[in-house]
Amino acid sequence: MELELQRPLLFFDIESTGLNLVNDSIVELSFVKVFPDHSTKVKTWRVCPWDYVAGKQKGIDPQASEVNGIKDEDVAHEPKFIEIVTEVIDWLRDSDLAGFNSTKFDLPMLSEEIERARAYCLKRLGNTKLSPDARQRAQATLDSLNIDLHEKRMIDVQTIYHYMEPRNLRAAYRFYCGGKAPIIAHSAEADTIATNEDEIDWHTAEADTVATYEVLKGQLEMYQKPDKYHEVALKNDVEFLSGVGGRPRTIDYAGRLILGKDNEAVINFGKHKGKTAREIYEKEPTYYDWIENGEFTMDTKRQFQRLKEQFEKEKREAMTKPLGAEEFSDAVAKMKAKFEGGKLF
After folding, report:
1. I need a surface site. Which of 3, 23, 111, 333 has the fewest CB within 10 A?
2. In whole angstroms, what is the distance from residue 115 CA to residue 38 CA?
3. What average pLDDT does this structure show over 93-112?
4. In 3D, which of 90, 95, 46, 53 has the Cα closest to residue 70?
């Protein structure tokens, strides 16, 4: 079944140096962009994983290499992520997103790389000795990063799969697509990845991305009607599909911040778990400095910083706002009670 789309849907998959969102980086990124007329565009990048602080290439964990087949020397001469980020953002900008297990790993990893690029540009612009040309390039790159991935609708095909039939991608592809190889239309002449399911390289970003697209279409074909195991059929609608299995209530991808009552930001880890971010800002503002300097994802730090700026703005506005009649009466009553008690403070 073909997807019913109002805007492009971008399927993506990442291969990385490892599974640590804070320290690991992308080595391969693949996009399959599906348009409302069902045409597709495909783009895959090999990326040199770069440590922007140390100024050198990051090593790929041997266990990761065993899975994705990519070694340090394979990406040593590839572009760094910051050198392709503007093009990556162009692909992302007008699209909803889809992937397999992407809400837990691929999307947070992609966001982390974008935040690293943002931080590097800001650091460069803060260097007074930077040449005018270098400053212009840094500013242009920074300007291109005006995107918030948290605002995008995200379909996780694995979530739908586990909701309906808990297994893995290879089994899902065999189950929904009959083991037929996915076809990528790179140009007018379509290139076939493999002739049958056993020949597909399941650990390349591009093969996984195309397979995920095919699986989603197979899921829509299979689950058109409710049955005794599933009360709700799948709707061919991005908004519905992005919410299958329950919408995540996290503010950052790592889940350090969640939405609580009245959509108030709540801390979800450590000694302040369950307390609102606003309460901790008022009682222990240094906690935000600890987050900024700690070993957290760039996305988590950015979300805490955003909340801090919001609370500071509200505080400034409250200090300059004239008191209303009720607020004035309350203030007078409190002062009167202090004087009557013989105390000024």
Report:
1. 333
2. 32
3. 93
4. 46
